[in-house]
Amino acid sequence: MVTETPKRRFRVPSRLVLQEWLEGYLFASPFIIGFLAFVAYPMIYSIWLSFQRWNLLGDPQFIGFANIIKMFTAERANLSLYNSAYYTVFAVPLQLILAFVLALALTQKIKFRDVYRSGFYLPIIVPLVAWSVVWQRVLHPEFGILNNALSWVGIPPQPWLFDPQLAKPAFVFMSLWMIGRMMVIFIAGLGNIPPTLMEAASLDGASAWKRLWHVTIPLMSPLIFFNAVMGIINSFQSFIPAKIMTDGGPENSTLFAVLNIYNEGFKFFNMGYAAALAWEFFIIVMLFTVVQFYMSKRWVYYED
Amino acid sequence: MTTANTTMQQTVTMAERKSRRKMLERIWLVVLQVLMTIFLISFLVPALWMISSSLKASTEVFAHPIVWIPATPQWQNYARVFEVLPFATFAWNSFLVVLFAVAGTIFSCILVGYSFARLRWPGRDLFFGVLIATLMLPEVIVLVPRFIIFRNLGWIDTLLPLTVPFWFATTPWTPLYVFLMRQFFKGIPMELEEAALIDGASRIRTLIQIILPLSKPVIATVTVFAMLQHYTDFMNPLIYVSSLEHWTLALGIAGLNADESFKASWELVFAAGTFMTIPVIILFIFAQRYFVQGITMTGFGGR
């Protein structure tokens, strides 16, 4: 039917090809519609919203750059970003180290490895809301089990969530129970390291410590990088524990970025301002990720 | 003579060294075993404390030193949870949300994943790029505008915003599931389908009769992840649902926790927490394979 002539730029698609197009669009339509209606349109709409003052009553009012100026100058907004950055900077490296150490240990010839793996994984499948109400009490100065455990080693009870100095460290501490996903990824990666490589290093006289630093860690660096990127994105977006345990207190010391956006939007109904804050947050997270990818070229080792 | 002697000495010391190294290794493994057990206990203690405290009398909750095993298990704590707040309704709502959101997730991910894996259509690569770009889209960027959209649709204080978007493979997480499906479908040999297509079977028939039976593992993984996602979701119910009759379990626990009148009733909060956790633990026990599979396949899952 259709003769191939190299000069013609457009070929009339055959009926079969057309049918495949049609089916392709039809099958992909949930995503195409969903993306346009629930992602693209909301994102554009929220740019417009960033320049309005609107508390959901009456009509939105154009206020120019007022929201954006407020976003950069308001103490609470900047504090919330600082809090999230603090939490991320301390939580993610500690999580990575703990997850890596546990994964290393669980790839040694110890018994009941599956039991340990499931046990270390368990905390992240407990619904985070339930986990948070439990930890609010774990950290309770008087009746919590943390202070109780600390008293065994002679550390006096601490006011944790009631002290602006200690609240963020308490959140970091709590985050150490959330390493199951990272650990499972590390275990899978360690299993993929060829044993011959380790044996070769051993025969060359490399000690266990040297093998770790010069063989295992370089080979695992893509996974360390992946877990770091994911960990940072997740920590930055942490919302539930702060909402439940402290609602941002004491003295806004656990007012994290997403909680602040939530408060502005759904507590104070500053829809325009909340939209602007969300965009700022989004850009910061993207920048962080891009910078990480850029820096990864220096330390992540890819075999090829 | 002397050379033979030294070699003999050498072999002796070699053997000695070898057995000493073996010894050290064994000691190290025992130490490691003990250390791991200590870690395991500390990882499980918060959850165990929750379960044990859910069965305590309120005097035991606040006892010094800590009571680990309640004298007589107070099963009525669970009954009281259902009295102080309509937790049966919350459980039903959570069930509905999980059912409809997960059904929509599976439906849309299979279709879209198949389209990206097998069908050629103009713009496919562009939209696949869009899909990859939305994998990591922070949920908060669409929080405010989506709320306003659903408000204009009159969906506020219904379960619709918690279920309908997931029939459209939309964020959060669903694009990841599409990606998973697509990767899996691509791994199925084309020839299986081609034979059926030549025999005149429609696309949808080959999808249902040939692709889906082979795709049980990936469907199971996506189902497990999506169930967990929607069962534990807190942010969306918090924003969209206000009246008590539409609350989900996550909202119920947060509400109970924040309620001043139950401030001295920790055992109720723990009972509610345990009640919400049990189904997840059961799911984990039966579907652990799919959790691990899903994580190692994608690097995602859990928190």
List strands and helices in order, with pairings.
The complex is a heterodimer of chains A (304) and B (303).
Chain A: H1 15-49, E1 52-53, E2 61-62, H2 66-73, H3 75-106, H4 113-121, H5 128-138, H6 145-152, H7 164-175, H8 180-191, H9 195-203, H10 208-236, H11 240-245, H12 257-266, H13 271-299
Antiparallel strand pairs in A: 1-2
Helix pairs in contact in A: 1-13, 2-13, 3-7, 3-8, 3-10, 3-12, 8-10, 9-10, 10-13, 12-13
Chain B: H1 2-53, H2 58-61, H3 76-84, H4 87-118, H5 124-135, H6 143-152, H7 160-163, H8 174-186, H9 190-198, H10 203-214, H11 216-232, H12 235-240, H13 249-258, H14 266-298
Helix pairs in contact in B: 1-14, 3-14, 4-8, 4-11, 4-13, 5-8, 8-11, 9-10, 11-14, 13-14
The average pLDDT value of chain B, as a whole number, equals: 90
The name of the CATH superfamily of the largest domain in chain A reads MetI-like
Largest sheet of chain B: none
Number of helices of chain B: 14
Integer-rounded radius of gyration of chain B: 28 Å
The CATH top-level class label of the largest domain in chain A: Mainly Alpha
Report the end-to-end length of chain A measured between terminal Cα atoms: 46 Å
Fourth-level CATH superfamily of the largest domain in chain B:
MetI-like
Average pLDDT confidence of chain A is 91
Counting structural domains of chain B, the number is: 2
Strand content of chain B: under 5%
Q: Helices and strands of chain A, in N-to-C order?
A: HEEHHHHHHHHHHHH
CATH architecture label of the largest domain in chain A: Orthogonal Bundle
SS element count, helices of chain A = 13
Helix content of chain B: over 70%
Q: Indicate the structural class of chain A.
A: mainly alpha
Task: Give a description of the structure.
The complex is a heterodimer of chains A (304) and B (303). Chain A is mainly alpha-helical and 304 residues long. Chain A folds into 2 domains: 53 residues, no CATH class; 225 residues, Orthogonal Bundle (MetI-like fold), CATH 1.10.3720.10. Chain A contains 13 helices and 2 strands, in the order H-E-E-H-H-H-H-H-H-H-H-H-H-H-H. Chain A has a two-stranded antiparallel sheet with strand order 1-2. In chain A, helix 1 packs across helix 13 and helix 3 crosses helix 8. The longest helix of chain A is centred in the first third of the chain and has 35 residues. The mean pLDDT of chain A is 91. Chain B is mainly α and 303 residues long. Chain B folds into 2 domains: 52 residues; 221 residues, MetI-like fold, CATH 1.10.3720. Chain B is 74% helix and 0% strand. Chain B has 14 helices and no strands. In chain B, helix 3 crosses helix 14 and helix 4 packs across helix 8. At the A-B interface, helix 1, helix 3, helix 4, helix 5 and helix 8 of A face helix 1, helix 4, helix 5, helix 6 and helix 11 of B.
